[in-house]
Specification:
A hairpin with a 3-residue loop joins strand 13 and strand 14. The strands form four sheets. This protein has a seven-stranded mixed β-sheet, with helices on both faces. Strands 2-1-3-9-4-7 form a six-stranded antiparallel β-sheet, with no helix packed on it. A six-stranded antiparallel β-sheet has the order 12-17-16-15-14-13. The chain is 47% helix and 16% strand. The longest helix has 36 residues. Among the domains are: 61 residues, no CATH class; 227 residues, no CATH class; 86 residues, Distorted Sandwich (Calcium-transporting ATPase, cytoplasmic transduction domain A); 118 residues, Calcium-transporting ATPase, cytoplasmic domain N. The chain has 23 helices and 22 strands. The chain is of the alpha+beta class.
């Protein structure tokens, strides 16, 4: 059976075509022909070619862009994606051709010729159909035997169908292979055969940098430690470095998960991947591109994939036990029973071959992926995209639910949560005055205040004599009154001292407002917790999962959310690689881990978790690395997915147990000689398959 592992095509972690070449790559000088090794790692990640000739950068100055620029096309002339499409087309044609020949042969025999014995033209058509449908199974079985892996479903499928041919049950042999191929088709429909290319994620690392000395634009990989580069408003920081000139706010959410833009100025250390939202910055590079934060994140994803526990296909595990038992019993019937009962060998040989036919694992092989297919289809209708059977199996075994905070448990955007006032001031008045001061603000905090005033349909007065105090807030004249809007430092510097102790209460950002030298109140702004978070996390705990929150956000904000939602464990202030280590600690202590995140910084953890889940509103890197995606980004989808996966595994287990029970009964009847008939063997195979299909279809009616 085809593996449920989404990485069976052996691409790199992101599914990016290794042959892809940018214009910048091709223009780089000094290119040399590299090794022709199809196992070449993804060049962007700064690793060494397997030939040992290429290193990440070919020197300090060239950087890894030169590595990316090597022509690793190996003269294929086409991409892996084209190979996959050609393979899928070939499989569809084989299935159609085999099924067509099978149907035509049966029509010719039963409706046209109406002969009691199988004619040679019909047999030839059935043999051809069998070879078209079963050649891959037979070849796989032969390869496995050569590698010492004898007892699997391919081996039993092969000997059972060949045995059917040996006793003249040609339609049975072809029918078994046809059902097997249909099962593979169900599986392929359920699994995303090719993950989306996330070139956008790789492009989070700037392709070029602008040197401050002469404003020359060069490939980012050629920038050296010590180079001073310009970062303009709206640009992504290309390299880790230190600000030497300029002030601005950086959006660091993609790297750290921290939703609040961070103010930076001279001597501030900044990380690659952050977005400059305001002023022009001059930054001295402290690390080259291959060692930058974004490169480390992408490299962590690949390393996490390698460390991720590999779930073995259920039916493969089962076949390793089932197949040798069946083969052993067949040999016992063929060789020992005639001697024990003193009878001729030929009847018992026929019984043994019939035994192999009725024990064929077609129902077992098809029913398990079919149960997964139905479960995946049901999940997709509820906005839950499960990327294959491995995700279903892993999710059903999860013992801990580890969640990111920003964008996963919370909305990922700021809003006014509370307005506290002093006697003599109303909430709307405080909000109007603050909105007047923040009218022209580009900061998310200021925008959220203005948005709150707009939602309440308040008339915002014009502000005059507005003066912004860097890092503290705004001072302005509003309706003839002197208004201060900012932090405690702003108020204290302007002589406002009677600020209550309760100002520090509550999680979030506090914007204090003073009017004519007197403290008037504050506006509490925070990243709001999703409405369904509390009930959903409670349900997860009720399902036996320990809830854990890992976040790059500040400790105070994380603890406040955890306390409100009764989350069992919290780790805050984590960088991407620290999140991965923290998740692995949880796995060692509690067992199988479900991790849910949404940002680029979550990609390594998503890739390394037993099962990674991404919010559909999240970054492409998170969605790519995840095993399942919650398209509606609702927290309630998490317990829904766990519940459905467990239901799916129960039905798959029922299919296996039911099929085995019927097969064992029929096999006992055949061995003891009570009743041995090929039609009974057909029922034990095809009939049981039909019952398993009906049982699996129950998943399509599943309601949470």
């Amino acid at each position: 059976m085809a593996s449920f592992d989404l990485h069976k095509n052996e691409r790199n972690t992101f599914g990016i075509d290794r042959n892809t070449e940018t214009e910048t790559d091709r223009e780089l000088p000094g290119e040399e022909e590299c090794c022709e090794d199809d196992r070449l790692p993804e060049p962007h990640l700064g690793v060494t070619c397997s030939c040992g000739h290429c290193h990440h950068g070919h020197g300090e100055e060239e950087g890894e862009e030169e590595h990316a620029g090597h022509k690793h096309d190996h003269s294929h002339g086409h991409s892996h994606e084209e190979d996959d499409e050609a393979h899928e087309k070939k499989e569809r044609l084989e299935l159609i051709a085999g099924a067509g020949l099978y149907a035509l042969a049966l029509v010719l025999h039963f409706l046209i010729l109406r002969e009691s014995a199988w004619s040679w033209p019909v047999i030839a058509m059935l043999v051809l159909a069998y070879l078209i449908l079963g050649k891959d199974v037979l070849l796989t079985s032969v390869r496995n035997i050569r590698h010492g892996e004898i007892f699997d479903e391919n081996f039993l499928m092969g000997i059972a169908t060949l045995a059917a041919f040996a006793i003249g049950e040609y339609p049975e042999a072809v029918g078994v292979m046809l059902f097997f191929r249909l099962g593979e088709m169900f599986e392929d429909m359920a699994v995303e055969r090719s993950r989306k290319k996330i070139l956008e994620t790789v492009n989070l690392r700037a392709e070029t940098v602008i040197l401050a000395e002469n404003e020359e634009e060069i490939p980012a990989a050629r920038a050296k430690v010590g180079d001073v580069v310009l970062v303009k408003p709206g640009d992504r920081v290309p390299l880790d470095g230190i600000v030497v000139e300029g002030e601005s706010f950086l959006d660091t959410s993609a790297v750290t998960g921290e939703p609040v833009p961070v103010r930076v100025g001279k001597n501030s250390e900044i990380l690659a991947g952050c977005v400059n939202t305001q002023g022009v910055l001059k930054v001295i590079a402290t690390r080259k591109l291959s060692e930058s934060m974004t490169s480390r994140i992408l490299r962590s994803v690949e390393e996490a994939q390698e460390q991720k526990p590999k779930l073995e296909h259920f039916i493969t595990r089962f076949a390793r036990v089932y197949t040798p038992i069946v083969v052993g019993l067949a040999l016992f019937v063929a060789l020992a029973m005639p001697l024990i009962r003193g009878e001729a060998f030929h009847p018992w040989l026929y019984t043994a071959i019939s035994f192999l036919v009725m024990s064929c694992p077609c129902a077992l092989v098809v029913s398990v992926p079919l149960a997964f297919f139905c479960g995946i289809g049901t999940a997709s209708g509820k906005g839950i995209l499960l990327k294959g059977g491995s995700a279903v199996e892993a999710l059903s075994k999860a013992r801990a639910a580890v969640l990111d905070k920003t964008g996963t448990i919370t909305e990922g955007s700021f809003s006014v949560q509370e307005i506290r006032t002093q006697p003599g001031f109303a909430e709307n008045e405080i909000l109007r005055l603050a909105a007047a001061c923040e009218t022209f603000s580009r900061h998310p905090i200021g925008k959220s205040i203005c948005e709150a005033a707009k939602e309440r349909a308040l008339t915002v007065p014009a502000a005059r004599s507005m003066e912004e105090k860097a890092g503290r807030g705004v001072s302005a004249l509003v309706e003839g009154r002197q208004v201060l809007c900012g932090n405690a430092g702003l108020l204290e510097r302007n002589g406002v001292t009677a600020i209550p102790d309760t100002v520090s209460d509550g999680a979030g950002t506090r914007v204090l407002v003073a009017v004519d030298g007197s403290y008037a109140g504050l506006i509490l702004i925070a990243d709001a917790v999703k409405k369904d978070a509390a009930a959903s996390l409670k349900r997860l705990r009720g399902m036996g999962l320990t809830t854990v929150m890992l976040t790059g956000d500040a400790e105070s904000a994380a603890q406040a959310v955890a306390k409100d939602l009764k989350i069992d464990r919290v780790r805050a202030g984590l960088l991407p690689e620290e999140k991965l280590s923290a998740m692995q600690e949880v796995r060692r202590e509690l067992g199988s881990v479900l991790f849910v995140g949404d940002g680029l910084n979550d990609a390594p953890v998503l890739a390394g978790a037993d099962v990674g889940a991404a919010m559909g509103s999240g970054a492409d890197a998170a969605i790519e690395a995840a095993d399942l995606v919650f398209m509606n980004s609702n927290v309630s989808a998490i317990p829904q997915a766990v519940s459905l996966s467990r239901r799916c595994m129960r039905i798959a287990t029922e299919n296996v147990a039911g099929a085995l029970a019927i097969k064992i009964i029929v096999m006992l009847l055949g061995i003891t000689g009570i009743y041995s008939n090929m039609w009974l063997a057909v029922f034990a195979d095809t009939g049981v398959l039909f019952l398993c299909i009906l049982n699996s279809l129950r998943l399509l009616r599943w309601k949470d």
